[in-house]
Design goal:
- By secondary structure, the chain is of the alpha/beta class.
- It has 11 helices and 15 strands.
- It has a domain of 230 residues: Rossmann fold (3-Layer(aba) Sandwich).
- It has a 7-stranded parallel sheet, with helices on both faces. Strands 6-15 form a two-stranded parallel ribbon. Strands 8-11 form a two-stranded parallel ribbon.
- α1 links the parallel β1 and β2.
- α2 packs across α4 and α6 crosses α11.
- It is globular and about 55 Å long.
- The two termini are 35 Å apart.
- The relative contact order is 0.16.
Length: 334
Amino acid sequence: MKVLITGGAGYIGSTIASTLLDTGHTPVLLDSLVTGPAAFTRGRIFYKGDIADQELLKHIFKEHPDIVCTIHCAALIVVPESVAQPYRYYHENVVGSLELFKYLSQLGYPRVVFSSSASIYDAVPGFKVTEESPLKPSSPYARTKYMMEMVLEDLSRATNLRGIALRYFNPIGADPQMRSGIHAKEPSHVLGKLVDTALGKLPEFQITGVDWPTRDGSGIRDYIHVWDLAMAHVKAVEQFDGVMGKVGDTYAVINLGTGNGVTVKELVAAFERVYGQTINKREAPPRPGDVAGAYANADRALELLGWKAEHSIDQGIQSALEWGSKRKEILGYV
C-alpha cells in the first residue's frame, strides 16, 4: 500500500516511513523541513511544502492516485515554546490541519490516521488512563492536539472522512537500523536531554518537577520505544476499515503506550544503568505547561489493532545512545 505521511521528515514520521518500507509498503513524505531534516527524506518519495497547500496536495495525489491513507504527523510539539508562542502553535497545528482535512475530503482520500497526544488527558487517581478518561489539556500544544481531534471527529461525522486518532504517550529511542532518531539540536524529549548530558553537550540533566503526587515526586510517564509506536501506525493503516467496522463508527481513539508508569527519576536510574556511568543531574522546578503525567491502559490497541509494545525501556535507551553517537554521520551536526 502507498501511504502519505505529513511531517514525514520528523522524528516520528521518518520512523513510520521506515516501518512502512520494512513491511512492504510505500511511504510518500510531505514536509516543510521547518524542523525536520532533509537527511531523513533521502531515497524516499518526498514533497517539500505545507500541509495546507491545496495545489501541492492535488499534485501529490495526481502523481500517486493509489495512496490509501494519510498519516498526519506534522505539528509543532515543544510544550514550553507553545506557552510562549500560542498563536504560532494554533495557526500551524489547528488551522493547517483543518485545511488538510478539508482537501483530503474534497480530493477523495478519506482515511486519516492522526498523531494525537496523551497530554490531553486530565490527571486521574493512579495516573492510568483509558480512552474514556477525562480530558484536560494543560498547555497550548496539548490544546492544539485536542482541537485537532475534535475537528477530525466532527468532519468524520459530516463528510466522507474517517479518522483514527492515536494518542501517543512518550516516545523514546531510535530506529534500530539507525536510519533516524531525535534530530533537534536542542532536544525537548527527556531521553534526548539525557543522551546530550552523557555526551557532554549539556552540563547536567534537570529533573523538572519533584513535588508531584507520585511515588518519588517526579513526573510519571509511559515511555514507549519509537519503533513500537511506528509499528502501530502500520497496523492502523493495514486494518483501517476493520477498525471502523469493529467500533461501528467513523472515528476511533486508541492509546499507544506500554501500560507501565515510570517516573522521571526511575528513567534516569535506568539510563545510568544502561550507560554504565552516573551523569550530572539536579532537581529543578516544573517547566511551563508541565503536568504530573499519566500512563496508558493499552487494551484497546491490542483489541482493535492486535498491537502491543514489545521493546523495553533499556532497549530504547540503548538505541538512543547509539543514535547519539551516529547522528552527526547522518545529519551533519551533533
